[in-house]
Specification:
Length: about 375
Protein backbone atom coordinates (compact mmCIF):
# COMPACT_ATOMS: atom_id res chain seq x y z
CA UNK A 1 0.00 0.00 0.00
CA UNK A 2 1.21 3.49 -0.88
CA UNK A 3 0.69 6.07 1.86
CA UNK A 4 -0.99 9.34 0.98
CA UNK A 5 1.49 12.06 1.99
CA UNK A 6 -0.88 14.94 2.75
CA UNK A 7 1.84 17.36 3.86
CA UNK A 8 3.75 16.82 0.63
CA UNK A 9 0.55 17.50 -1.30
CA UNK A 10 -0.32 20.76 0.47
CA UNK A 11 3.30 21.96 0.58
CA UNK A 12 3.75 21.60 -3.17
CA UNK A 13 3.21 25.07 -4.72
CA UNK A 14 2.11 23.36 -7.92
CA UNK A 15 -0.98 22.06 -6.09
CA UNK A 16 -3.59 24.76 -6.66
CA UNK A 17 -6.87 22.87 -6.17
CA UNK A 18 -7.78 19.97 -3.87
CA UNK A 19 -11.24 18.47 -4.41
CA UNK A 20 -12.64 16.33 -1.60
CA UNK A 21 -15.27 13.97 -2.92
CA UNK A 22 -17.15 10.85 -1.90
CA UNK A 23 -20.62 9.75 -0.90
CA UNK A 24 -22.70 11.62 1.66
CA UNK A 25 -22.02 11.37 5.38
CA UNK A 26 -18.39 10.27 5.20
CA UNK A 27 -16.81 13.47 6.54
CA UNK A 28 -15.94 15.39 3.36
CA UNK A 29 -16.67 18.78 4.93
CA UNK A 30 -14.50 18.13 7.98
CA UNK A 31 -11.72 16.64 5.85
CA UNK A 32 -11.73 19.63 3.49
CA UNK A 33 -11.60 22.07 6.41
CA UNK A 34 -8.81 20.14 8.12
CA UNK A 35 -6.73 20.11 4.92
CA UNK A 36 -7.23 23.86 4.49
CA UNK A 37 -6.30 24.60 8.12
CA UNK A 38 -3.13 22.51 7.84
CA UNK A 39 -2.21 24.13 4.51
CA UNK A 40 -2.59 27.63 6.01
CA UNK A 41 -0.50 26.70 9.03
CA UNK A 42 2.19 25.42 6.65
CA UNK A 43 2.32 28.70 4.72
CA UNK A 44 -0.31 28.46 1.99
CA UNK A 45 -2.86 31.19 1.26
CA UNK A 46 -5.83 28.85 1.24
CA UNK A 47 -9.58 29.11 0.84
CA UNK A 48 -12.04 26.32 1.56
CA UNK A 49 -15.34 26.21 -0.34
CA UNK A 50 -18.10 24.19 1.28
CA UNK A 51 -21.49 23.17 -0.05
CA UNK A 52 -22.58 21.77 3.30
CA UNK A 53 -26.09 23.00 4.20
CA UNK A 54 -25.59 22.26 7.90
CA UNK A 55 -23.07 25.14 8.23
CA UNK A 56 -20.80 22.98 10.39
CA UNK A 57 -17.73 24.45 8.75
CA UNK A 58 -18.43 27.99 9.97
CA UNK A 59 -18.85 26.74 13.53
CA UNK A 60 -15.65 24.70 13.48
CA UNK A 61 -13.70 27.69 12.16
CA UNK A 62 -15.04 29.99 14.85
CA UNK A 63 -17.20 32.02 12.44
CA UNK A 64 -20.85 32.84 13.02
CA UNK A 65 -21.76 32.24 9.40
CA UNK A 66 -20.38 31.84 5.89
CA UNK A 67 -21.71 33.20 2.62
CA UNK A 68 -20.83 33.36 -1.07
CA UNK A 69 -17.83 35.63 -0.44
CA UNK A 70 -14.64 34.24 1.14
CA UNK A 71 -14.11 35.41 4.74
CA UNK A 72 -10.71 35.32 6.37
CA UNK A 73 -10.56 33.15 9.49
CA UNK A 74 -9.30 35.29 12.36
CA UNK A 75 -9.93 33.73 15.75
CA UNK A 76 -7.98 33.55 18.99
CA UNK A 77 -5.30 30.91 18.97
CA UNK A 78 -5.08 30.71 15.18
CA UNK A 79 -2.02 32.46 13.78
CA UNK A 80 -0.99 30.55 10.64
CA UNK A 81 2.17 31.40 8.72
CA UNK A 82 -0.10 31.50 5.68
CA UNK A 83 -3.73 32.59 5.49
CA UNK A 84 -7.10 30.85 5.62
CA UNK A 85 -10.43 31.99 4.22
CA UNK A 86 -13.71 30.12 4.05
CA UNK A 87 -16.99 30.41 2.17
CA UNK A 88 -20.22 28.51 1.64
CA UNK A 89 -21.80 28.23 -1.81
CA UNK A 90 -24.89 30.36 -2.39
CA UNK A 91 -26.32 28.62 -5.44
CA UNK A 92 -28.67 31.43 -6.48
CA UNK A 93 -26.07 34.18 -5.98
CA UNK A 94 -23.51 32.26 -8.03
CA UNK A 95 -26.02 31.78 -10.86
CA UNK A 96 -26.82 35.51 -10.72
CA UNK A 97 -23.12 36.38 -10.94
CA UNK A 98 -22.79 34.13 -13.98
CA UNK A 99 -25.71 35.88 -15.70
CA UNK A 100 -24.20 39.30 -14.96
CA UNK A 101 -20.85 38.16 -16.36
CA UNK A 102 -22.30 36.99 -19.67
CA UNK A 103 -25.04 39.51 -20.43
CA UNK A 104 -25.32 43.24 -20.82
CA UNK A 105 -27.09 45.20 -18.07
CA UNK A 106 -30.48 45.26 -19.81
CA UNK A 107 -30.43 41.58 -20.78
CA UNK A 108 -29.23 40.61 -17.30
CA UNK A 109 -32.15 42.50 -15.71
CA UNK A 110 -34.58 40.59 -17.95
CA UNK A 111 -33.13 37.24 -16.99
CA UNK A 112 -32.83 37.93 -13.25
CA UNK A 113 -36.42 39.20 -13.01
CA UNK A 114 -37.90 36.26 -14.92
CA UNK A 115 -39.98 33.88 -12.72
CA UNK A 116 -38.81 30.90 -14.77
CA UNK A 117 -35.17 31.79 -14.08
CA UNK A 118 -35.88 32.17 -10.36
CA UNK A 119 -37.09 28.57 -10.33
CA UNK A 120 -34.31 26.87 -12.29
CA UNK A 121 -31.59 28.85 -10.49
CA UNK A 122 -32.61 27.28 -7.19
CA UNK A 123 -34.23 23.93 -7.96
CA UNK A 124 -33.23 22.61 -11.37
CA UNK A 125 -31.62 19.17 -11.17
CA UNK A 126 -27.83 19.47 -11.16
CA UNK A 127 -27.77 23.21 -10.48
CA UNK A 128 -26.02 22.89 -7.11
CA UNK A 129 -23.28 20.70 -8.52
CA UNK A 130 -22.80 22.96 -11.53
CA UNK A 131 -22.65 26.10 -9.41
CA UNK A 132 -20.05 24.49 -7.17
CA UNK A 133 -17.89 24.04 -10.26
CA UNK A 134 -18.73 27.57 -11.44
CA UNK A 135 -17.62 29.05 -8.12
CA UNK A 136 -14.42 26.99 -8.27
CA UNK A 137 -13.76 28.44 -11.72
CA UNK A 138 -14.36 31.98 -10.43
CA UNK A 139 -11.96 31.55 -7.50
CA UNK A 140 -9.28 30.08 -9.74
CA UNK A 141 -9.65 32.91 -12.29
CA UNK A 142 -9.39 35.60 -9.61
CA UNK A 143 -6.02 34.23 -8.48
CA UNK A 144 -6.33 35.59 -4.93
CA UNK A 145 -5.47 32.23 -3.33
CA UNK A 146 -2.67 29.79 -4.03
CA UNK A 147 -4.73 26.81 -2.80
CA UNK A 148 -8.47 26.18 -3.18
CA UNK A 149 -9.96 23.28 -1.20
CA UNK A 150 -13.42 22.18 -2.39
CA UNK A 151 -15.97 20.21 -0.39
CA UNK A 152 -18.24 18.68 -3.05
CA UNK A 153 -22.05 18.63 -2.68
CA UNK A 154 -23.76 15.95 -0.58
CA UNK A 155 -25.25 14.30 -3.67
CA UNK A 156 -26.76 10.84 -3.80
CA UNK A 157 -23.87 9.95 -6.06
CA UNK A 158 -20.42 11.48 -5.84
CA UNK A 159 -20.28 11.28 -9.63
CA UNK A 160 -22.88 14.06 -9.93
CA UNK A 161 -20.19 16.70 -9.39
CA UNK A 162 -18.32 15.65 -12.53
CA UNK A 163 -21.47 15.16 -14.58
CA UNK A 164 -23.13 18.46 -13.62
CA UNK A 165 -21.80 20.79 -16.36
CA UNK A 166 -22.78 18.43 -19.16
CA UNK A 167 -26.15 17.59 -17.60
CA UNK A 168 -27.13 21.21 -17.03
CA UNK A 169 -25.82 22.35 -20.40
CA UNK A 170 -27.72 19.56 -22.13
CA UNK A 171 -30.91 20.40 -20.25
CA UNK A 172 -30.72 24.09 -21.15
CA UNK A 173 -29.79 23.34 -24.76
CA UNK A 174 -32.17 20.47 -25.37
CA UNK A 175 -35.16 19.97 -27.66
CA UNK A 176 -37.71 21.54 -25.33
CA UNK A 177 -35.59 24.66 -24.90
CA UNK A 178 -35.32 24.99 -28.69
CA UNK A 179 -39.08 24.59 -28.98
CA UNK A 180 -39.54 27.39 -26.47
CA UNK A 181 -37.69 29.64 -28.90
CA UNK A 182 -40.58 29.01 -31.31
CA UNK A 183 -43.00 31.72 -30.13
CA UNK A 184 -40.57 34.46 -31.09
CA UNK A 185 -40.01 33.01 -34.56
CA UNK A 186 -43.33 31.46 -35.46
CA UNK A 187 -45.99 33.34 -33.51
CA UNK A 188 -48.91 31.32 -32.23
CA UNK A 189 -47.88 28.22 -34.18
CA UNK A 190 -44.73 27.98 -32.07
CA UNK A 191 -46.69 28.17 -28.82
CA UNK A 192 -49.11 25.48 -29.98
CA UNK A 193 -46.15 23.33 -30.99
CA UNK A 194 -44.72 23.57 -27.51
CA UNK A 195 -48.01 22.55 -25.94
CA UNK A 196 -48.53 19.60 -28.29
CA UNK A 197 -44.91 18.44 -28.33
CA UNK A 198 -44.43 17.82 -24.65
CA UNK A 199 -45.58 20.51 -22.28
CA UNK A 200 -46.32 17.94 -19.58
CA UNK A 201 -42.80 16.48 -19.74
CA UNK A 202 -41.16 19.90 -19.67
CA UNK A 203 -43.34 21.13 -16.80
CA UNK A 204 -42.38 18.03 -14.84
CA UNK A 205 -38.67 18.68 -15.50
CA UNK A 206 -38.79 22.15 -13.98
CA UNK A 207 -41.22 20.83 -11.36
CA UNK A 208 -42.13 23.82 -9.22
CA UNK A 209 -43.14 26.46 -11.77
CA UNK A 210 -46.93 26.96 -11.64
CA UNK A 211 -49.52 29.31 -13.05
CA UNK A 212 -50.82 30.42 -16.41
CA UNK A 213 -47.67 32.37 -17.26
CA UNK A 214 -45.50 29.24 -17.39
CA UNK A 215 -44.98 29.09 -21.15
CA UNK A 216 -44.68 32.85 -21.59
CA UNK A 217 -42.13 33.13 -18.77
CA UNK A 218 -40.18 30.13 -20.05
CA UNK A 219 -40.10 31.43 -23.60
CA UNK A 220 -39.04 34.92 -22.49
CA UNK A 221 -36.29 33.42 -20.31
CA UNK A 222 -34.90 31.24 -23.10
CA UNK A 223 -34.86 34.11 -25.58
CA UNK A 224 -33.03 36.33 -23.09
CA UNK A 225 -30.67 33.54 -22.04
CA UNK A 226 -29.90 32.32 -25.57
CA UNK A 227 -27.12 34.83 -26.17
CA UNK A 228 -25.39 33.61 -23.00
CA UNK A 229 -25.20 29.93 -23.98
CA UNK A 230 -21.76 30.37 -25.54
CA UNK A 231 -20.30 31.86 -22.37
CA UNK A 232 -22.07 29.23 -20.30
CA UNK A 233 -20.44 26.40 -22.26
CA UNK A 234 -17.06 28.10 -22.31
CA UNK A 235 -17.01 28.44 -18.51
CA UNK A 236 -17.92 24.77 -18.16
CA UNK A 237 -15.14 23.83 -20.59
CA UNK A 238 -12.52 25.87 -18.73
CA UNK A 239 -13.52 24.44 -15.34
CA UNK A 240 -13.38 20.91 -16.76
CA UNK A 241 -9.85 21.66 -18.01
CA UNK A 242 -8.91 22.97 -14.56
CA UNK A 243 -10.11 19.73 -12.97
CA UNK A 244 -7.94 17.73 -15.38
CA UNK A 245 -4.85 19.88 -14.92
CA UNK A 246 -1.75 18.78 -13.03
CA UNK A 247 -2.40 21.48 -10.42
CA UNK A 248 -5.58 19.76 -9.25
CA UNK A 249 -5.67 16.82 -6.86
CA UNK A 250 -8.77 14.75 -6.05
CA UNK A 251 -8.97 13.28 -2.56
CA UNK A 252 -11.65 10.61 -2.29
CA UNK A 253 -13.11 10.37 1.22
CA UNK A 254 -14.85 7.22 2.44
CA UNK A 255 -15.92 5.62 5.68
CA UNK A 256 -14.87 1.99 6.28
CA UNK A 257 -18.33 0.80 5.24
CA UNK A 258 -19.34 -1.27 2.18
CA UNK A 259 -21.51 1.38 0.49
CA UNK A 260 -19.02 4.22 1.03
CA UNK A 261 -16.08 2.19 -0.24
CA UNK A 262 -18.11 0.96 -3.20
CA UNK A 263 -18.89 4.56 -4.10
CA UNK A 264 -15.22 5.46 -3.64
CA UNK A 265 -14.28 2.64 -6.01
CA UNK A 266 -16.68 3.92 -8.67
CA UNK A 267 -15.29 7.42 -8.26
CA UNK A 268 -11.66 6.26 -8.56
CA UNK A 269 -12.54 4.44 -11.77
CA UNK A 270 -14.38 7.46 -13.14
CA UNK A 271 -11.49 9.79 -12.36
CA UNK A 272 -9.16 7.46 -14.24
CA UNK A 273 -11.54 7.30 -17.19
CA UNK A 274 -11.78 11.11 -17.27
CA UNK A 275 -7.97 11.54 -16.88
CA UNK A 276 -8.44 13.52 -13.67
CA UNK A 277 -5.58 13.49 -11.14
CA UNK A 278 -6.24 11.37 -8.06
CA UNK A 279 -4.08 12.05 -4.99
CA UNK A 280 -5.49 9.19 -2.97
CA UNK A 281 -8.12 7.85 -0.60
CA UNK A 282 -8.85 9.03 2.94
CA UNK A 283 -10.52 6.32 5.00
CA UNK A 284 -12.28 8.32 7.66
CA UNK A 285 -13.53 7.29 11.13
CA UNK A 286 -11.65 4.02 11.45
CA UNK A 287 -11.50 2.08 14.73
CA UNK A 288 -7.98 0.70 15.21
CA UNK A 289 -7.32 -1.44 18.28
CA UNK A 290 -5.66 0.27 21.21
CA UNK A 291 -3.92 -2.78 22.68
CA UNK A 292 -2.35 -5.94 21.26
CA UNK A 293 -4.70 -8.35 22.99
CA UNK A 294 -6.51 -10.95 20.84
CA UNK A 295 -10.28 -10.92 21.02
CA UNK A 296 -10.50 -14.52 22.26
CA UNK A 297 -8.16 -13.83 25.16
CA UNK A 298 -10.04 -10.68 26.11
CA UNK A 299 -13.37 -12.53 26.15
CA UNK A 300 -11.89 -15.42 28.14
CA UNK A 301 -10.48 -13.01 30.73
CA UNK A 302 -13.82 -11.16 30.95
CA UNK A 303 -15.72 -14.42 31.51
CA UNK A 304 -13.23 -15.46 34.20
CA UNK A 305 -13.67 -12.18 36.07
CA UNK A 306 -17.45 -12.37 35.77
CA UNK A 307 -17.51 -15.95 37.06
CA UNK A 308 -15.43 -14.94 40.05
CA UNK A 309 -17.68 -11.95 40.67
CA UNK A 310 -14.72 -9.58 40.80
CA UNK A 311 -13.64 -6.47 38.88
CA UNK A 312 -16.86 -5.91 36.89
CA UNK A 313 -15.45 -2.74 35.35
CA UNK A 314 -12.38 -4.58 34.08
CA UNK A 315 -14.61 -7.29 32.62
CA UNK A 316 -16.68 -4.66 30.78
CA UNK A 317 -13.52 -3.03 29.39
CA UNK A 318 -12.27 -6.40 28.15
CA UNK A 319 -15.58 -7.04 26.37
CA UNK A 320 -15.44 -3.57 24.77
CA UNK A 321 -11.92 -4.35 23.61
CA UNK A 322 -13.11 -7.63 22.06
CA UNK A 323 -15.85 -5.75 20.21
CA UNK A 324 -13.28 -3.19 19.02
CA UNK A 325 -11.00 -5.94 17.72
CA UNK A 326 -13.90 -7.43 15.75
CA UNK A 327 -14.82 -4.02 14.33
CA UNK A 328 -11.21 -3.30 13.38
CA UNK A 329 -10.91 -6.69 11.68
CA UNK A 330 -14.10 -6.05 9.68
CA UNK A 331 -12.94 -2.59 8.59
CA UNK A 332 -9.53 -3.91 7.56
CA UNK A 333 -11.17 -6.59 5.40
CA UNK A 334 -13.28 -3.97 3.64
CA UNK A 335 -10.33 -1.63 3.05
CA UNK A 336 -8.16 -4.56 1.87
CA UNK A 337 -10.84 -5.40 -0.70
CA UNK A 338 -10.68 -1.83 -2.02
CA UNK A 339 -6.84 -1.93 -2.08
CA UNK A 340 -6.87 -5.22 -3.99
CA UNK A 341 -9.09 -3.65 -6.64
CA UNK A 342 -7.05 -0.40 -6.74
CA UNK A 343 -3.50 -1.28 -5.63
CA UNK A 344 -1.96 1.95 -6.95
CA UNK A 345 -4.22 4.30 -4.98
CA UNK A 346 -2.42 5.96 -2.06
CA UNK A 347 -4.26 5.86 1.26
CA UNK A 348 -4.45 7.66 4.58
CA UNK A 349 -6.56 6.60 7.55
CA UNK A 350 -8.11 8.89 10.16
CA UNK A 351 -9.29 7.24 13.39
CA UNK A 352 -12.73 8.20 14.67
CA UNK A 353 -12.76 11.16 17.02
CA UNK A 354 -14.37 10.72 20.47
CA UNK A 355 -16.86 13.51 19.63
CA UNK A 356 -17.96 15.59 16.65
CA UNK A 357 -15.41 18.14 15.49
CA UNK A 358 -16.67 21.64 16.21
CA UNK A 359 -13.55 23.80 16.60
CA UNK A 360 -10.11 24.57 15.20
CA UNK A 361 -8.37 22.28 17.66
CA UNK A 362 -10.38 19.35 16.33
CA UNK A 363 -9.58 20.29 12.74
CA UNK A 364 -5.89 20.56 13.63
CA UNK A 365 -5.97 17.09 15.15
CA UNK A 366 -7.57 15.64 12.03
CA UNK A 367 -4.95 17.38 9.91
CA UNK A 368 -2.21 15.84 12.04
CA UNK A 369 -3.75 12.41 11.63
CA UNK A 370 -4.05 12.91 7.88
CA UNK A 371 -0.32 13.73 7.79
CA UNK A 372 0.70 10.94 10.16
CA UNK A 373 2.89 8.68 8.06
Amino acid sequence: MTTLDMDRLVDDPATRVIVCCGSGGVGKTTTAAAIAVRAAERGRKAVVLTIDPARRLAQSLGLRELDNTPRQVEVDGFAPTGELSAMMLDMRRTFDDMVLAHAGPERAREVLANPFYKTISSSFSGTQEYMAMEKLGQLAAEGAYDLIVVDTPPSRSALDFLDAPQRLSTALDGRMIKLLMGPARAGGRGLRKVVSAGFGLFAKAVSTVVGGQLLADASAFVQAFDSMFGGFRERARRTAELLRSSGTAFVVVAAPEPDALREASYFVERLAAESMPLAGLVVNRTHPVLAELPSAQALAAAESLESAGTAPLAAAVLRLHADRVALDRRERRLVARFTKAHPSVARAEVPAMPADVHDLDGLRLIGERLADL
